[in-house]
């Protein structure tokens, strides 16, 4: 299996998602710079919806992202 195909999945909205590893750099006032590894998920839309389906998909993506952020904060 090549690396491209193992990083791509199809989600519940039947959209292709591609996960990419990246690095996030943050700094707070009076603190040094913090580096941590993060996963970025790109959603590739394969269907052309013009009747509100795109907005519904975007809302679902935002909901999923917010839940992931809550989970990440809760683990900290």
Task: Describe what you observe in this structure.
The chain is of the alpha+beta class. The protein is built from two helices and three strands; from the N terminus they run αβββα. It has helices at residues 3-6, 53-75; strands spanning 8-10, 16-27, 33-44. Strands 1-2-3 form a three-stranded antiparallel β-sheet.
Can you count the helices? Answer: 2
Give the structural class: alpha+beta
What is the β-strand count?
3
Strand neighbour order, sheet with most strands: 1-2-3
SSE run: HEEEH
- Major sheet characteristics: 3 strands, antiparallel
Bin the helical content.
Answer: 25-40%
- The share of residues in extended strands comes to 35-45%
Note the gap between the termini: 34 Å
Number of domains: 1
- The whole-angstrom Rg is 16 Å
Globally, the shape reads elongated
Low-confidence stretches: none
Average predicted local confidence, pLDDT: 78
Looking at this protein, list some descriptive labels.
3 strands, 76 residues, three-stranded antiparallel β-sheet, 36% helix, alpha+beta
């Amino acid at each position: 299996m090549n690396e491209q195909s193992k990083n791509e999945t199809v989600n519940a909205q039947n959209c292709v998602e591609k996960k990419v590893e990246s690095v996030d750099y943050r700094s707070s006032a009076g603190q040094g710079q913090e580096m941590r590894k993060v996963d970025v998920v790109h959603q590739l839309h394969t269907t052309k919806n013009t009747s509100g389906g795109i907005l519904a998909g975007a809302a679902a993506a935002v909901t999923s992202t917010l839940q992931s952020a809550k989970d990440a904060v809760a683990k900290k």
